[in-house]
Specification:
Elements: H1 2-19, H2 29-34, H3 40-43, E1 46-51, E2 65-70, E3 73-78, E4 80-84, H4 100-108, H5 113-119, H6 133-140, E5 146-154, E6 157-159, E7 167-168, H7 171-175, E8 178-190, E9 197-202, E10 211-216, E11 221-222, E12 225-226, E13 228-232, E14 250-252, H8 259-270, E15 274-276, E16 283-288, E17 291-293, H9 294-304, E18 308-312, E19 315-319, H10 325-356, E20 364-365, H11 375-384, E21 395-396, H12 402-409, E22 420-432, E23 444-448, E24 477-483, H13 487-499, E25 504-508, H14 512-522, E26 528-533, H15 555-564, H16 566-574, H17 593-604, E27 612-614, H18 637-642, H19 649-659, H20 691-713, E28 720-723, E29 725-726, E30 736-742, E31 750-751, H21 758-763, E32 766-770, H22 777-793, E33 798-801, H23 810-817
Parallel strand pairs: 1-3, 8-20, 15-19, 24-25, 24-33, 25-26, 26-27, 27-28, 29-31, 32-33
Antiparallel strand pairs: 1-16, 2-3, 4-13, 5-6, 5-7, 5-10, 8-9, 8-22, 11-12, 14-17, 18-19, 21-22, 22-23, 28-30, 30-32
Helix pairs in contact: 4-6, 4-10, 13-14, 17-20
């Protein structure tokens, strides 16, 4: 086989050399390959998946391609492949791996008086550094230092140049690049009717239509950990068994077809359910010869796109990696989210060192901006730039300079209060290229100037005012939710409710005999019993299809990762809430759902049962729609995605069949990470498979499944309560949830906001407060504070949910909260 490959390579060289001068210079990757003479009857079939890209080259080397022999087939494939490593097995390096803005802050703490004059003047070069400053400066300067060209559209946007036509600075040129720290003018624009504010900047160096240098800087590292690994292109590990004899079948070759069409033909011929990711539909196929085996073609395709075959249920998809890109994106986002908490404290510390050194006064506005400010604007900046200032002062736009009035006018489409504006500054850094050119779209932000405070901040959990516990059961307390797996526990639950003077028990159980025992015990006491069910929790294991998040986590493993997630822990402490439970649960596409719904209907048919309560009817991740505002002011997009279910194998397979893409390969369009993941697809274009459509689809599946459940319960004639499906982002529930009544023939309730707030409360019938066993007095106090607010504010009946409390801790927990 090696000898044949060498002969083929030699043939390429001879034919290329003989025909180079006679043929016109190719202009695309495909034309380079088609320009290579190939006699299939002598050399066998040939195949290549070609990116639709232009090139100045004319040889395989020029387009970074090589020839490989696979069985009787020759394939023209990329010379290298990209793999992603997002498991972060090594500890992060918080200095060598710092983002550039943090490196610059750290670097500024090392400078001496004469160096401050340079870095705030014409700029400072490597030659101006001393001692360990040199190593820090070396890490600040991109290496290699790549430049493209941008065309200015307006102050805030530009169009890219051809990314294949880049300038790379020589070592000497790179060492001549200057680092300069400047200030820029920023504006705070109040919205009308005190509805908040927006902001913008005033730049003097972005003239519409101008051609300006642009730094091309794709970070493939995260704090010293290399994520994107480039290596020689070989077959990646695959989950498709190509040794199976069904892949012996011969497949006719059809030139100019799409890779997706070729994969579909192989699927039809072999009886194996196969798909190709839509990224590869942007490639064009060169196919020479009459036929090749399905096995050889599938291997050639995998090499040709530097990808592999991933199993999804009973199907397989040609994709870039065995793990989905969504999993890689989420791991990076979680890593960044966590480390950002630590990094922010260090940046605050470095800003305080700079502030204490009284160096900020040396930082000047960008040339041409400062001398155009009016006296009122200068005074306003002086006030708003005070360290730790949070009280933005406004001035009349009538007294402003033309540049600032124009900036306000640019936002006239918003509902602004045009009469006033707040002016302050941001401290930034920029690179000055050899020859003096600036890169106006490649500046770095060091923060608002008022953030340079002598007093660094550190995070501490809030301490709410103490609440007196236990409390007397309030008049609005209508029921308790308790759990029972035996007749004895059910009777004990009824006793607890009776002793506390509460009129209703919502019993969480999966057992008809246990439910009957509770009803029999409660009826003579005048206590009503309703069935409380969490419909999606897997009542018995194993099941064929458990729901999971994008990284495949569920159940116990999910709990362990949740406990290690620093940013998540801070969020729940900041907001006085419990982290949501993450039990093993079903998805709407799980085969067990029909059996589960039937079991719930049987339980609900119990004689003497008052009604049915569906708790946690919509697990996190099943909103009606997705929203780019997700996490904008409650928590980060990483937390949102981490807590979001919906990636069960059955659901992924259903979506793959419907949309021809595995949802595991759909990047969230609102969760930004510092690593460009598109490179994992090689030179295939991103086809714009919308993440939002996936979110909407699984939300519809969930809604349809819940509707089938309540419609099945409707003939029993018993009241049904359930929470509304989130209308926008799939925010994880706080410790209080709101339930609404459902009437047969009506639509399911919807939570009108992306947060369980006042609007949701108004639209609901009852509030349920989740109370867990906890030995942390501060956590108990945080939840109690929210409960007291709810009892005094909502005007709704309230139910306390103790169903998650272990049986041996129930008595103690009830005594902590309620007086008999």
């Amino acid at each position: 086989m090696v000898q044949i490959a060498l002969i083929v390579l030699g043939l390429f060289r001879q034919q290329r050399g003989a025909s180079q001068q006679a043929q016109p210079k190719p202009q695309t990757y495909e034309s380079v390959i088609r320009a290579l003479p190939w006699e299939a009857d002598k050399s066998g079939p040939l195949i290549s998946a070609c990116p639709r890209m232009r090139t100045q080259g004319s040889t395989l080397n020029d387009i970074e391609r090589k020839s490989v022999r696979i069985g009787n087939l020759t394939a023209i494939v990329p010379t290298t492949m990209m793999t992603l490593n997002t498991h972060f097995t090594e500890a992060p390096n918080l200095y060598d791996g710092l983002p550039r803005d943090a490196k610059v802050l750290y670097f500024l703490t090392l400078l001496e008086e004469d160096q401050w004059r340079k870095i705030t003047g014409d700029g400072l070069t490597l030659a101006d550094c001393r001692g360990n400053q040199t190593a820090v400066m070396q890490s600040i300067l991109p290496n290699p230092f790549k430049l493209g060209t941008a065309t200015v559209v307006d102050q805030h946007s530009y169009t890219n140049s051809d990314s294949t036509n880049l300038q790379v600075l020589t070592d000497q040129e790179r060492e001549s690049v200057k680092l300069r720290v400047t200030k820029d003018i920023s504006l705070q624009l109040p919205l009308a009717n005190n509805q908040g504010f927006t902001g913008t900047s005033v730049r003097e160096d972005r003239v519409k239509g101008a051609k300006v240098p642009l730094l091309i800087d794709d970070n493939g590292d995260e704090f010293g950990q290399h994520i994107k690994i480039e290596s020689p292109n070989t077959l990646k590990k695959s989950q498709l068994d190509l040794a199976n004899s069904r892949f012996d079948v011969k497949i006719p070759l059809k030139d100019n077809e799409l890779p997706t069409a070729l994969v579909a033909r192989i699927a039809a011929a072999t009886g194996v359910e196969l798909y190709a990711d839509p990224h590869y539909s942007t490639l064009s196929m060169v196919e020479r010869g009459t036929e090749a085996s399905a096995r050889d073609l599938l291997q050639a395709l995998a090499l040709g796109v530097a990808g592999t075959y991933r199993r999804v249920g009973n199907a397989f998809v040609l994709t870039c990696d065995l793990e989905g890109v969504a999993a890689h994106q989420l791991r990076i986002a979680i890593f960044e989210d966590d480390i950002q908490k630590v990094l922010n404290e260090r940046k605050d510390l470095w800003r305080s060192v700079i502030a204490k050194g009284n160096q900020l006064g040396k930082v000047k506005f960008s040339p041409g901006a400062y001398d155009k400010l009016t006296p009122d604007e200068l005074a306003n900046i002086s006030n708003n730039d005070r360290p730790d200032n949070s009280d933005e002062k406004y001035i009349s736009t009538a007294t402003c300079s033309d540049a600032i009035r124009q900036a306000v006018q640019n936002f006239r489409g918003l509902n602004l209060d045009p009469s006033r504006v707040g002016v302050h500054s941001t401290t930034e850094y920029e690179f000055i290229l050899p020859g003096g050119s600036k890169m106006p779209f490649s500046t770095g932000w060091l923060d608002s100037t008022n953030r340079f405070s002598p007093n660094p901040s550190t995070w501490h959990p809030p301490k709410p005012a103490p609440v007196s516990l236990p409390m007397s059961p309030p008049t609005s307390l209508s029921a308790l939710v308790l759990h029972a797996d035996s007749d004895k526990t059910a009777r004990s639950d009824v006793d607890h409710v009776h002793e506390l003077g509460v009129g209703e028990l919502w019993l969480e159980t999966q057992n008809q005999a246990v439910l009957a025992a509770a009803i029999d015990t409660a009826t003579p006491l005048g206590i009503k019993v309703s069935l409380a069910i969490r419909p999606w929790i897997a009542s018995k294991l194993p099941v064929t299809d458990l729901d999971q998040n994008a990284t495949g986590d569920h159940g116990k493993a999910f709990d362990e990762k949740k406990a290690d997630y620093l940013a998540l822990a801070h969020f729940w402490q900041d907001n006085s809430a419990y982290a949501p439970a993450t039990p093993d649960q079903l998805s709407p596409q799980s085969p067990e759902v029909a059996e589960r719904w039937s079991a719930i209907e049987s339980l609900a048919s119990a004689k003497g049962l008052k009604g049915v309560v569906l708790l946690d009817a919509y697990p996190t991740g099943y909103a009606m729609d997705s929203s780019n505002s997700s996490g904008s002011y409650f928590y980060s997009e990483a937390v949102d995605a981490f807590l979001s279910y919906g990636y069960s194998e059955a659901q992924r397979l259903a979506y793959l069949r419907a949309e021809k893409v595995d949802p595991a390969d759909l990047e969230s369009d609102s969760m930004r990470v510092n690593v460009r993941l598109n490179d994992a697809w090689g030179k295939a274009w991103t086809p714009g498979q919308p993440f939002q459509k996936w979110q909407q689809t699984k939300g519809k599946w969930m809604r349809a499944s819940m509707l089938s459940l309540v419609n099945g319960l409707a003939p029993l004639g018993k009241p049904i309560l359930l929470g509304g499906q989130p209308a926008k982002i799939h925010l994880a529930p706080f410790e209080q949830n709101y339930l609404s009544s459902w009437a047969p023939g009506s639509d399911l309730p919807v939570s009108p906001e992306d947060y369980v707030g006042d609007e949701t409360a108004k639209a609901s019938d009852i509030a349920v407060v989740n109370i867990r066993y906890d030995e942390d007095l501060e956590q108990i106090n945080r939840v109690a504070t929210n409960l007291v607010k709810l009892l005094t504010k909502s005007g709704k009946p309230v139910v306390l949910d103790f169903s998650s409390v272990p049986l041996n801790k129930l008595d103690a927990t009830l005594k902590t909260w309620l007086k008999k």
